[in-house]
Amino acid sequence: MTAPHAAVPSVWAQRLGYAGLLPFVLLTLGTWVAEPGQRAFAGLALAGYGAVIASFLGAIHWGLVMRDAPKQSLALLGWGVTPSLLAWVALMLSPPAGLLLIAAVLWACFAVDRVVYPRFQAQGWLPMRLALTCIASASCVAGAARL
Fold first, then answer.
1. Structural domain of 72
2. Residue burial 27-42, b: 16+ Cβ < 10 Å; e: rest
3. Which of 19, 70, 71, 74 yields a CA-CA distance of 20 to 30 A from 39?
4. Are 86 and 105 in contact (CB under 8 A)?
5. What number is the average pLDDT over the span 127-138?
6. CB under 8 Å to 39, separation ≥6 — which residues?
7. Is position 2 within any domain?
8. Per-residue pLDDT tens for 34-87?
9. From CA 98, how far away is CA 87, in angstroms rounded?
10. Has residue 43 been placed in a domain?
11. CB 73 within 8 A of CB 128
């Protein structure tokens, strides 16, 4: 299915997207400046939030498939659940390893989106997605480094 023109994020989508970085940044800061007992909690909360975001990024592909009802791509449906499964595995690892896996999943999501979004004329979202991925994944790596 194709839209009449390439979709770009609205001002509200941009605001909400960038606001979604606050938990990444604040929880990462918590892993560095909080008391030792609270650092572990900040790391766990960071991994949990990262897992939720990874699941969200995968779910977008189900939404794209739903828009293209006559051609429901098994590959996109399969990819749509992959970030959730990998994020779930990340939550069972040690916090540093889990955060590194989540950072890798965020980059894998972006790599797939670079290929898929243009097919749905959504490539206008990629610059924002790149910025969000850079900051979110850097937060996970910085949190892992401290833990």
1. 11-146
2. bbbbbeebeeeebeeb
3. 19
4. yes
5. 98
6. 30, 31, 32, 146, 147
7. no
8. 999 899 999 999 999 999 999 999 999 999 999 877 788 899 999 999 999 999
9. 8
10. yes
11. no
What is the C-alpha separation between 40 and 147, in angstroms, rounded? 7
Residues 101-119: b if buried by 16+ CB within 10 A, e if exposed: bbbbbbebbbebbeebbee
Token code pair at residue 82: 């992959």
Q: Which amino acid is at 6?
A: A
Give the residue carrying structure tokens 């979604």.
20
- DSSP per-residue codes, 109-121: HHHHHHHHHHHTT
Residues 6+ apart with CB under 8 A from 43: 27, 31, 95, 96, 99, 143, 144, 146, 147
71 DSSP assignment = G
Q: Is the separation of the CB atoms in 126 and 117 below 8 Å?
A: yes
Extract the tokens encoding 61.
Answer: 């592909």
Q: Is residue 105 part of a domain?
A: yes
* Spatial separation of the C-alpha atoms in residues 79 and 82, rounded to whole Å: 5
What amino acid is encoded at 59 in this protein? A
